[in-house]
UniProtKB/TrEMBL annotation:
Keyword Nucleus: no
UniProt entry tagged with the keyword Transmembrane: no
Keyword field: Hydrolase, Protease, Signal
UniProt organism field: Hymenobacter montanus
Gene Ontology molecular function: aspartic-type endopeptidase activity
Residues of the Peptidase A2 domain: 62-99
Record's signal peptide: 1-19
Full protein name: Aspartyl protease family protein
GO terms under biological process: proteolysis
Domain PDZ: 331-401
A Pfam family annotated for this UniProt entry: Asp_protease_2
């Protein structure tokens, strides 16, 4: 599954974007103990997305997606919102990609208390969606109740240590930059509660451009470039048409290619797998001009300090830095279902892919892979397997929509 989370929503009620709903100068989160300088919070990584556990109004904890790409936190679970009896404030109609009305409604709610180990936001303002159309739980493979946005990052200095599965949040007043020559700094500009930076990107052998990119931990890809954002941008000669993921208005179409290099601070990343979404499928009603975004497939290669208060990103390569950027080599999108999210349905099969050649069909249920029951795997483990090795053969048992079982083998192939 190529999960591209597009939360460039517009809310039709006099608000062009989230930033106008909440005071941009407010810092909702604080350390629970005033004398403490920092707190350590466990994090999980599922399908290149960061998950934290939050208590909401004293209940929980509940899994929330940690996303710098949204500037107000969202509760996606209507069941959770109803159980907490949240106050219904102003209601909005959500507009998706291309300005298309989705039929989705959202309402504003205030005085939401959010807690994580060692930190608290006693009076958060959130949006509540009327329907969980994104089904993040099914796409990530664990229960997801909402999205925690920029409020955390503009309140505290956030250090992500993926190898220790830990997030360290620090008081901005007492925070001191880590020592060591390997740390590099990238300047951030904060505009409407999102973080932007400029990175040189080599698009062809003779063309390198400085691109303005959103720092987006809620996107699972490495790099996304919107070609219509600048007439100088050119598409790569070699590209793969594909579904890039799901937005509010449906599947986002486009293609994958590679850029020669991307410079992040003093570090150079090579042959970066890059999404090029179709202009019609990307919400262009954005209030801050930009050329694209950088997601966690690239960011996970570093230990990161996301420092909104001092407008900087600090990064140091970790053990994943030299890992190649790989695309799904099978050609299927999977959806996790069932009470424990261990049933897997085929959502889409890409034309001319190894999965299509093996006869996989939409709505097939995956029963077994390499003679192991499918319930033995998480969706993240399956995702890694489908990205694993050019030429690897996977033996699959599938259940069709008529209930019949069949066996097939899929030979993985690097397509881009």
């Amino acid at each position: 599954m190529r999960l591209l989370l597009l939360f460039g929503l517009c809310l039709e009620a006099g608000f062009p974007a989230y930033a106008q709903i909440e005071n941009p100068g407010a810092a909702p989160f604080a350390l629970a103990r005033a004398r403490r300088k920092q707190a350590r919070i466990p994090i999980q990584l599922h399908r290149n997305l960061l998950i934290v556990k939050c208590r909401v109004n004293g209940a929980g904890p509940f899994n929330f997606l940690l996303d710098t790409g949204v500037n107000i936190s969202i509760i996606t679970s209507t069941a959770l919102a109803d159980s907490l009896n949240l106050r219904h404030g102003q209601q909005y109609r959500v507009v998706g990609a291309g300005g298309v009305a989705t039929g989705l409604l959202a309402y504003q709610t205030d005085s939401v208390r959010m807690e994580m180990p060692g930190i608290v936001a006693p009076h958060m303002t959130c949006l509540v969606l009327s329907e969980d159309v994104l089904d993040l739980s099914g796409y990530i493979g664990v229960p997801i109740y909402g999205i925690l946005g920029s409020e955390l990052f503009r309140s505290l200095v956030v250090t992500l240590r993926l190898e220790q599965a830990t997030m360290v949040v620090s008081n901005p007043v007492t925070y001191r930059r880590p020592k060591g020559r390997r740390w590099s700094e990238v300047a951030l500009s904060l505009e409407n509660n999102k973080a932007y930076f400029v990175a040189p990107v080599q698009l062809t052998d003779s063309l390198t451009l400085p691109l303005k990119l959103v720092l987006d931990t809620g996107a699972s890809h490495a790099l996304s470039i919107e070609l219509d954002s600048d007439p100088r941008l050119v598409a790569p000669a070699k590209r793969l048409p594909t579904n890039l993921g799901r937005g509010l208005s449906g599947m986002v179409q486009g293609y994958l290619g590679r850029v020669g290099t991307l410079q992040l601070g003093r570090y150079t990343l090579r042959s970066v797998l890059t999404s090029f979404p179709n202009a019609a499928d990307v919400h262009r009603r954005v209030d801050v001009p930009r050329n694209g975004n950088i997601g966690y497939e690239l960011l996970k290669r570093f230990s990161l300090v996301i420092d909104y208060p001092h407008q900087r990103l600090l990064l140091r390569p970790n053990t994943k830095f030299r890992d190649p950027f790989e695309h799904d080599m099978c050609g299927i999108d999977l959806l996790a279902t069932g009470p424990d999210y261990r049933r897997y349905l085929v959502l889409n099969v890409m034309p001319n892919s190894p999965a299509a050649a093996a006869g996989l069909q939409p709505n097939d249920e995956l029963i077994s892979i390499n003679l192991l029951p499918i319930s033995a795997f998480t969706l993240t483990q399956l995702d890694r397997m489908l990205h694993s090795e050019d030429g690897r053969t996977l033996l699959m048992i599938l259940r069709g929509t008529d209930g019949s079982l069949r066996t097939t083998s899929v030979r993985l192939k690097r397509q881009i």
